Fold these 2 entries.
Entry 1:
Amino acid sequence: MITLYGGPTPNARKIAIALLEMALEWRLEHVDILAGDQLTPEFLALNPNNKTPVIVDENSPAGGRFVLWETGAILLYLAEKTGRFLPQDPTKRAICWQWLMFQMTGVGPMFGQQAHFTHYAKERHEYAIQRYNREVDRLMMVVDKRLADAEWLGGDEYTIADMAMLPYLRRQLIERAGHFPNVDRWGTAMLERPAVAEGIKVGVARAETIEGGLSGFTDEHRAILWGDRQHAPR
Ligand SMILES: N[C@@H](CCC(=O)N[C@@H](CS)C(=O)NCC(=O)O)C(=O)O
C-alpha cells in the first residue's frame, strides 16, 4: 500500500495520475496546505522541506516502509518499481528524463511564480507579472514545438514526463486554447485517459482549497504559505 500525502495541487495530481496509471494500491492522506498541515512536526518528519506531495510505500523494493518526496524522484521511483512508463531504450529513456527535468526545473517553478504574482500577491508588481508571463509563453512555445515533432513529450511513448507536465498545463489549455495547437492536441489525448481524468481530481472532495487562488485568498493563507511559520527553526 502506498499513501499519498497531498491535496488538490498540480504536484499531487502528477503522482495520483501515476499511481492510477500503474494500477498500484494507494490511498490519499489529505494535507491542507492552506491550513498549515505541511508545517506540523508530523509532516516535517516526512518532508523537512514542508512541501506536498510525499509518498510512503509500505512495500518498497528494499522491503518495508519507504518515504519519498520531490515529484520527479517519486515518478522515477514508481516507474522503476513497476517497470512502466519509462522507455527501455537508453537514449529514449534519457529523452524522457530530459522532459521530466525540464518540467521540474523550468515549467514548475516559472508557472508557480507566474501564478504567485498574477493571483496571490497582495500588491501588483508589473515587472514581475510581465517577466513571468513572458517566461510562461516562452516555455509553452518550447513544449508546443516538441509536441509538433513528437506525439508525447518523451517521443513515441506515453511516459512519466507527460504525467508530470499535464497538471501544470491544465490552466493554460483553457486560458490559451488555440494558441498552442500541438499542446491542445496532446492535452485532449491526455484528458481522454481515465487515469488522468481521475488523477486530476485528487483531493477535491475534501478541499477547502481555493482553486487557482483567484477568489477568497486571504492574508491568513498568505501568512501560512509565505510568512514567518515557513522560516521557524525545525
Ligand atoms: N519541487 C516540489 C514542489 C512541491 C510543491 O511546491 N508543493 C506545494 C503544493 S503544489 C506545497 O506543498 N506547498 C506548501 C508550502 O510551500 O508550504 C515537488 O516537485 O515535489
Entry 2:
Amino acid sequence: MTVAVVGAGPAGTRAVEVLVRAGQRPVWIDEAPANGGRIYQRPLAGTTRSHRDLYGTEAAKAAAIHALGDRLRDASDWRPGTLVWNLRPGLLDTFRAGRHEAIRFERAILCTGAMDRIVPVPGWTLPGVFTLGGAQIALKAQGAAIGARVAFLGTGPLLWLVAAQYVKAGASVALVLDTSPFATKARATAGLLRDATTFAKGLALVARLRLAGVRVIEGGAPIAIEGTDAVAAVRVRDRAGREHRIACDAVGLGFGLKPESQLADLAGVPFTFDGTQRNWVPQHDGAGRTQVPRIYLAGDAAGIAGADAAELAGARAAWAAIADGGAAVDIAEVARLARVLARIPRFRAALERAFPYPAVLAARTPDATIVCRCEAITAGELRAAARESHVMGRAPEVNRAKAFTRVGMGRCQGRVCGPPAAEILADALGCDVAEVGRLRGQSPVKPIPILALAAE
Ligand SMILES: Cc1cc2nc3c(=O)[nH]c(=O)nc-3n(C[C@H](O)[C@H](O)[C@H](O)COP(=O)(O)OP(=O)(O)OC[C@H]3O[C@@H](n4cnc5c(N)ncnc54)[C@H](O)[C@@H]3O)c2cc1C
C-alpha cells in the first residue's frame, strides 16, 4: 500500500512517524525544503539564533519535530521542495525544481495546514504590508523584521504572539490593534482555562508587550493604511470612536487562520460552514477519514485546532489509513489519541469566541478598496455584481460573483480574497455568509510555470 502524506508540519510529521512504525514507506511531500510546517518553520542555513530565540516556549517541541523529521527522511520517500498542485483519483500532480511528476497513491493523508485570513483594510496592497504569518516567517526563517517601526493590526492569538516575538527580537513595535475588545476576551476566560498552560502563555505575551511600553488598542478598528509608494502610517479608531494616526513603515495584518483545503476540495471532500470559526471546513469523521474513499485529513487543513492537536490528528489519521488498509493497529494508542483529541474543540471554541473574525469590518469594506489584488477587483464591483445577480433573480453565490467580476480568478485562486468577498456579497444581498458559499478549489492550487507543464 502506498500512502502519500502531503505536508511536513506537526500533523504530517506525526503521520509519517506512525506509518514508518507500522512498517510502511510512505511518500512524504512538502513544498518547503525541510519539515517543521508553519509554527516550527526552520531558519535558513547558517542562522545563529537559538531554538529558544526562534520558538520561545515551544522550543522543545520544535526541536522534537525537527529531529523526528530528520530521522524519518531516509525511512520514507521524502520529497522536499515539491508542490502538490493538483489531485486526481489515485494521483498527485507535483512540481519540483522545474519538473512535473504525477505520483501514484493508494491512500493520501492531506496535512496541508492553514494560512492567514485578511480583511481588506484600505491601503492593504501598499508595499510594506505583510500578513501576520508573513511577518513571522521573515523573523523566523530570515532573521529579519519587516520594517524599522511596525504596526500589527488584526485579531487572534497570532497577532499578540508575532508582536511579542518582534519585541523580543529587538524590533520597534508602533502599535498592536486587536479588533476584539478586552471584555469579549474576558468572557471567554472559563473556556480558555480548559488549557491553562496555553492560556498562561498568552497572558505572558500580553505582559511582555505592556512591559515594553507598546501601544495597545483593544476593541478598535483599522481605518486605513496610508502612504504613497510604501507604508507611512496607519489610521485607526479606538473603542471610544477616537481616531489616531500612528507613523510606521510596515504593517502586519491578520484576522485568524483558514484551512488550506484546496486539495481536499479537488478530491471531492464535502465541506461544512463552521459558524464559530467562520470558515468552510472539509468534513471528516474525527479520525481523519473523509467521505471520499482513501482520502484522509489531519491538522489545521481539517479545521483550525493548533499545533499540538495537529500532532495528535496526524498520528490518528495514519492509524485510520493503516486500519483501512487491513494492517494491524495499536488499539490502545488509537484510543489514547481519540481521548486527548476529544478535549480540544472546547478550548478552541473559546479561542474563537475570544478573537472573533470581524465579519462586519470585512462586509463594510469601502467601495474603492481592492478585495482581489490579483485581478484588482474592488468591494464596489462586488456589490454591483450582487445587485445585478439579484435583479436577474439568480441564487446569491460567490462563484457566480466570480464569473461576473473575476474575483478569485487570479494567482491566489481566491485563497486570500475568498472569505472577505463572501462577507461583502452576503452583506450586499442581505443573507447569511454561509448561503453565498465558498470559492471552489481549482488546480493549480498554487502558481506553477506553464512552460514546465507544456514541456511534459
Ligand atoms: C504563517 C503561520 C504562522 C503560524 N505561527 C504559529 C506560531 O508561531 N505558534 C502557533 O502556536 N501557531 C502558529 N500557527 C498555527 C500553526 O502553524 C498550526 O496550528 C500548526 O502548524 C498546524 O500544523 P499542520 O501540520 O496542520 O500544518 P502546517 O504546520 O501549516 O504544515 C503544513 C505543511 O504543508 C505544506 N503544504 C501545504 N500545501 C502544500 C502543497 N500543496 N504541496 C506541498 N506541500 C504543501 C506546507 O509547506 C507546510 O509545511 C501559524 C500558522 C500560520 C499559517
